[in-house]
Amino acid sequence: MFRGNHPTRVDEKGRLKIPADFKREVDERYGSQFFITSIDGDRAQVWPMPEWQKIEEKVLAMPTVPAKKKWLDRTSYYGQVAEMDAQGRVLIPQVLRESAKTVGDVVVFGKLNYLEVANHDQFRAKLDAEPMTAEDEAALAALGL
Known about the structure:
The chain is an alpha+beta fold and 145 residues long. It is 43% helix and 26% strand. The chain has six helices and eight strands.
């Protein structure tokens, strides 16, 4: 499982060095291939290929509905397969780097079975603008959290 936040940088060529804690998990469980994509263009999702393939199987089994098409359009537009190099780096697709502004300082979040990469300053501003509310806490409690 990927947990926590690891601030790092994406270099000028668009390469993200997978933080050491996350890289250990990748090396032990997943191998070196990823699918990097986004739903909204604001953050990059870095999926170990075995985890992404589970999602693809679910999508294949779904009936064709407009929401499925929208999801496929977005994940395909922003997405690319990436291979981790010997230094533990993956290339964030250029269209996603530009959209999410993920060059320079970024935060890499463990989202249990994938990683999420966001521009540090934009993410911090969103946290400040959208605090947890009593309604959020009630919704989570209703789900057992």
